[in-house]
Amino acid sequence: MSKGIYVATIEPNSGKSVVVLGLMRMLLGKTAKVGYFRPIIDNPKSDETDIHIHTVLSHFEIDINYKNAYAFTRNEVLDLYNQGKSGDVIDQIITKYKYLEERFDYILVEGTDFSSENSTLELDLNMLISKNLSLPVIIVSQGDNKSVKEIIDNVQLAHDTFKQEVDVLSIIANKVNPIDVEPLKELLQSRIPQNTDITVIPRIASLASPTVKEIVKLLDGTVLFGKDHLNNLIENYSVGAMQLRNYLTHLKDNALVITPGDRADIILGALQANISKNYPKISGIVLTGGLIPEDPILQLIEGLSSIVPIISLKEGTYYATNRIGKTKSKIYAENTEKINSAISVFEKYTNTDHLADKLITFESEIFTPRMFQYNLLQRALKNKKHIVLPEGYDERVLRATAKLIAAQVVDITLIGDKDKIKERVEKLDIPLNIEDVNIVSPTTSPYYDDYVNTFYELRKHKNVNLEMARDAMTDVSYFGTMMIYKGHADGMVSGAVHTTQHTLRPALQFIKTKPGVNIVSSIFFMCLEDRVSVFGDCAINPNPNAAELAEIAIQSAESAKNFGIEPKVAMLSYSSGASGKGADVDKVREAAEIVKQKDPQLKIEGPIQYDAAVDMKIGKSKLPESEVAGQASVLIFPDLNTGNNTYKAVQRETGALAIGPMLQGLNKPVNDLSRGCTVEDIYSTVIITAIQAQEE
Q: Which of 91, 379, 408, 494 could serve as a FRET partner for 386 with CA atoms 20 to 30 Å apart?
């Protein structure tokens, strides 16, 4: 089940706060502990907190430190994007969300406010964040001053856009003209898929109206009287510039009176009208121009039994009136009456029981690369391991080491001369303090003689003498592998400079395979846009027979499971099901049968074509009864030629991150890199190696 919901709007002033407050009340009635998170907040003024966060945390008494309730301000996000560090934004948001996820049963996530001009970026960000948090979405739109057609077109476009990336559980159209509520709901239900809940909320004057307190804050006003009544709602406003007898006829219920501060007649007349049975109630009085009534007038006001808020502004009447007219209502923590009203409105127009069940029981199938990498990092951090990197002079290895040390995720040994490595680090301006890593040169190591003798004893039956052993231990791959064998390191990653054979030969000679394992194989974790798939074997075995192919499939399924991916295994071939003939497809069919015999509980299909394995529509058309077709997570290629080319084609054409290869079947983790690997490849492979070492 999903542990959260993402509330996203598609435009400014949508009334999203009403939805968030209503959802929070609804969820608290269904779930014991509900958390709240805003990935990105507006840029606050100094010493001010975000209104949304303060309101939700205080009203519902949620035990979250303010700093933990958000990840970035809007400016911070823009700065990182301008520096080309958009990935850092998502990584930090995932980290903050996961911290809350561990503390709460369910998290309500509120998206951005669309208060900037760059609405396209905000829409993309909301989709990207919800996708990387694997959260379904509630889309909130607003119908203020819009026709039914405009609302429907906006909602349809938003739904179809979000649906490409995430699951949309509900659409809420807010601030709709009351006479349009039912027609709009019927039309939306006919246009939007039935599995998406539709809620239409009419425009409620009490929620749309700002309070006097908001005007004070917006215009930096000074409160002269009526501090206890600053939550008065402003449903109308008018300027007192004419004579009193004429102005009184323009008063309306809950109006804000705007007048220069020297118009004592308007001020006193409005106050008198407020307590008169013959005139409407007013919400407050704004005095403009920085003018304060004379003392006798102030004393007269002070002596009245009932006083509405009276505030003074430095600005003139024209400026103040324009600003007040553009003020949009907000819900803040102190206005409990408005909060309770918002919750009541939400509950009145929403089928809360049905929506709550959908939210709490929803299961997301989205598993993004960022989330996968976050999970890897967290697993590695739980039990820190020591990884040796034999290629200590390579720039990519050094940069990856700097990144790993900064993350404090593993301990690192680099093999090479310390002075030369230091020189490389300084020359390439790599942010690595070499005192934070262990650097060892084989021939000067205090373990060199012990390693030589150990290797001699292990390999003398293969006619290895002491001189040959000494020569072998000067080789960085042999030395690094011996560190693992002797327990001086937990795993090794190599291959940025050396060949696969150079990396694997010592491991096969004395690390050897696990009991019952007949073949060492490899997998790549292919981090696609919305999922992570396991590809095997794409690096080691040129042409495995049926028994070997079956063992690769079982090993790969177990690896997938160990890394949090439910294994659904597709044994790939050029045909699907029973239609194909020939030695190649027969081998795959035989391998699939062997797997079924050895592990009857494993979901497996084979032979099956790649498109039928990963595309639901094609998979169901070719193999309608299959549990794997269209949703395979582990893809086993029939030979190295097919596997290696396919993983590289997918990587290059889709931009997928390929983590690996990760070797399977050895007693201790040794992993081989491609010589074209990047810093990110090395970083990810080291973390995977550390996790493998935890399983030993």
A: 91
- How far apart (Å, rounded) are the C-alpha atoms in residues 172 and 197? 8
Element (H, E) at 237: strand 236-239
Reading phi first (left if > 0) and then psi (alpha if -120 to 50, else beta), residue 395 is in alpha
- Rounded percentage of the chain residues whose pLDDT exceeds 70: 98
Q: What is the pTM of this model?
A: 0.71
- Would you state the structure tokens that stand for residue 608, as one six-digit string? 């099956």
Q: Are 407 and 386 in contact (CB under 8 A)?
A: no
User: Order of strands, edge to edge, in the sheet holding 222-225?
Assistant: 222-225, 310-312, 282-288, 255-260, 236-239
Tokens of 127: 């989709």
- How far is C-alpha 663 from the geometric centre of its chain's CA atoms? 30
What average pLDDT does range 319-330 have in this prediction?
81
Q: What is the pLDDT of residues 623-651, one digit of tens each?
A: 888 889 889 999 999 999 999 999 989 88
What is the number of residues in the chain? 696
- Where helices occur in 133-225 by DSSP H, the ranges are 148-163, 181-191, 205-208, 212-218
**Which string of b and e fits 358-385 if b means at least 16 CB within 10 Å?**
bbbebebebbbbbbbbbbbbebbeeeeb
β pairing state of 222-225 and 310-312: antiparallel
Cα distance between residue 476 and residue 478, in whole Å: 6
Residues 77-125 pLDDT 10s: 888 888 888 888 888 999 999 999 989 989 999 998 776 555 677 888 8
The Cα–Cα gap between 439 and 437 comes to 6
Strands 657-664 and 521-527: antiparallel
What's the whole-number mean pLDDT along residues 67-77? Answer: 91
Buried b (16+ CB within 10 A) or exposed e, 530-544: ebbbbbbbbbbbeeb
List b or e across 660-670, with b for residues whose CB sees 16 or more CB atoms inside 10 angstroms. bbbbbbbbbbb
Helices (H), 230-303: 244-247, 264-275, 295-302
